[in-house]
């Protein structure tokens, strides 16, 4: 969630104050002089440009796109967990820059929290077109206070640590759960089983879930509160998989390989996790949704449903929503390109690889019924709607829901996105209960 607040702040300042790239040093020099003035007691208060003054509030349901009315530490993340032949490489900053093909100014700017930097000012430009949900503003305030650098600006280990810290700060640790949890080994891949007390006695449905995080970060820990809430509400047993993260030079398909391994294990050992003869499905958010589509490409039968939350299902960063949310606060297209630069780098044909890029799959007709939940302020939004249309055209039952006024990543932060995640949980639970 803290992906690119830094980039957004710099670019918005340049646009609002008319500062071009060529004048950047002049502006920085002025900032240094003002700092010297403050230290010498000669600083004069400067008027803040602030936000546009437009109200930024809550709206529950609006159409996709612009508002119709107006012409939001404890790391269990593993790097090849126990696989000594595939160690996590730390890319140097120049290597990360080259892999993402991004300019220096777009990546290495850290966010300075000042009195002028508020959630309202950060979202002011998009608030002219969309109603920013109140919970988005609260989440942004938390991210600003954390003051973490952009994920692309630090070693990947630090980015992982920052993400887990943020999730634990917002969601809390040792969240209560009306049910039981168990750590299991799914063929060499660690996983957590959530068995809700609300699980129907005569129906034992199971969902294998893959967490999001660009295939680079996050873990079962970051999604613990989310999956406990979803299990309680839906009555479905959830198996949360701790797949290996990238980069993994000796096994660049590690997340997908682990996902297939864990899924096949669950299919063969459902009695051990409480699945019995009930239905079986897959679920995932963001990169986890990408993994789901990869698994259903490898294993084309045996699934009764799939749950996709703002899935990464297209490698094309020129879709309209990608262009619109190029520098959106939180996760944006700049971060998406950085992510693809690392995860797709080992594959020259990544855009044409159906295991990596669901947009080129020609076998969608074998997919199980799906519920897709998207975030309105997300560069991945249009790829999600496109997937829904393609699934429907292939004869697959699809339910598509849009959560308005929130950015990518809200689903794993129910500690702050309380009502919006509750709405997402309700959509998913209503869908899953049809399979009981």
From TrEMBL:
Transmembrane segments: none annotated. Residues 207-411 form the Alpha/beta hydrolase fold-3 domain. Residues 11-75 are annotated as: Disordered. The keyword Hydrolase applies. One of its GO terms (molecular function) is hydrolase activity. Residues 11-48 have a biased composition (Basic and acidic residues). This is AB hydrolase superfamily protein c1039.03-like. It comes from Plakobranchus ocellatus.
């Amino acid at each position: 969630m803290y992906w690119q607040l830094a980039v957004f702040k710099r670019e918005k300042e340049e646009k609002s104050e008319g500062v071009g790239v060529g004048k950047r040093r002049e502006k920085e020099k002025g900032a240094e002089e003002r700092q010297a003035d403050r230290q010498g007691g000669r600083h004069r208060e400067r008027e803040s440009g602030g936000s546009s003054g437009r109200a930024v509030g809550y709206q529950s349901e609006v159409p996709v796109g612009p508002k119709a009315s107006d012409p939001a530490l404890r790391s269990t993340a593993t790097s090849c967990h126990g696989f000594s032949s595939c160690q996590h490489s730390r890319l140097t900053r120049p290597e990360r820059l080259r892999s993402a093909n991004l300019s220096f100014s777009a990546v290495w700017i850290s966010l300075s929290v000042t009195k002028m930097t508020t959630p309202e000012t950060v979202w002011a430009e998009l608030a002219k077109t969309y109603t920013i949900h109140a919970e988005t503003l609260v989440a942004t305030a938390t991210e600003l206070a954390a003051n973490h650098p952009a994920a692309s600006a630090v070693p990947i280990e630090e980015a992982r640590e920052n993400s887990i810290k943020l999730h634990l700060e917002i969601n809390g640790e040792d969240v209560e759960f009306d049910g039981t949890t168990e750590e299991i080994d799914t063929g060499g891949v660690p996983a957590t089983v959530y068995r809700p007390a609300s699980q129907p006695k005569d129906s034992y449905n199971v969902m294998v879930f893959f967490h999001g995080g660009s295939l680079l970060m996050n873990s079962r820990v970051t999604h613990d509160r989310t999956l406990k809430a979803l299990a309680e509400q839906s009555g479905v047993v959830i198996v949360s998989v701790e797949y290996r993260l990238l980069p993994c030079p000796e096994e660049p398909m590690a997340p997908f390989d682990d996902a297939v391994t864990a899924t096949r294990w669950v299919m063969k050992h459902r009695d051990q996790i409480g699945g019995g003869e009930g239905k079986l499905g897959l679920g995932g958010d963001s990169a986890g949704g990408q993994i789901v589509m990869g698994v259903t490409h490898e294993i084309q039968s045996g699934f009764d449903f799939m749950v996709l939350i703002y899935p990464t299902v297209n490698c094309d960063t020129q879709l309209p929503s990608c262009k619109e949310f190029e520098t959106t606060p939180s996760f944006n297209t700049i971060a998406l390109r950085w992510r693809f630069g690392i995860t797709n780098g080992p594959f020259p044909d990544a855009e044409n690889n159906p295991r990596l890029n669901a947009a080129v799959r020609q076998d969608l007709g074998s997919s199980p019924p799906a519920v897709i939940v998207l975030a309105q302020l997300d560069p991945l939004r249009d790829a999600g709607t496109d997937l829904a249309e393609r699934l429907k055209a292939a004869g697959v039952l699809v339910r598509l829901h849009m959560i308005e006024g929130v950015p990518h990543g809200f689903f794993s932060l129910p500690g702050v996105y309380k009502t919006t995640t509750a709405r997402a949980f309700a959509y998913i639970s209503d869908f899953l209960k049809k399979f009981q």
